[in-house]
């Protein structure tokens, strides 16, 4: 999985979790949704994405070329 797809998947999961928490726990969880949206927007302009940096350190995206095993 590429870094871009991993970040999109992570953002989507986090948004769904925040919407669920908003409905079940407190309406204040909308702030998490707003933070995720703001972070996606600023990363599209600046190219700085903390989630991508963490995922790279965890090894996500190393096999994005279609290889089944790292060499």
UniProtKB/TrEMBL annotation:
* Pfam families tied to this protein: YgaP-like_TM (PF11127)
Which InterPro entries has this protein been placed in?
A: YgaP-like_TM (IPR021309)
- Is Membrane one of the keywords? yes
- Keyword list, A-Z: Membrane, Transmembrane, Transmembrane helix
Which parts pass through the membrane? 7-25, 31-54
Q: Which domain of life is it from?
A: Bacteria
Question: Ranges for the Inner membrane protein YgaP-like transmembrane domain?
Answer: 2-56
Q: What is this protein called?
A: DUF2892 domain-containing protein
In which organism is this protein found? Answer: Novilysobacter avium
Classification lineage: Bacteria, Pseudomonadati, Pseudomonadota, Gammaproteobacteria, Lysobacterales
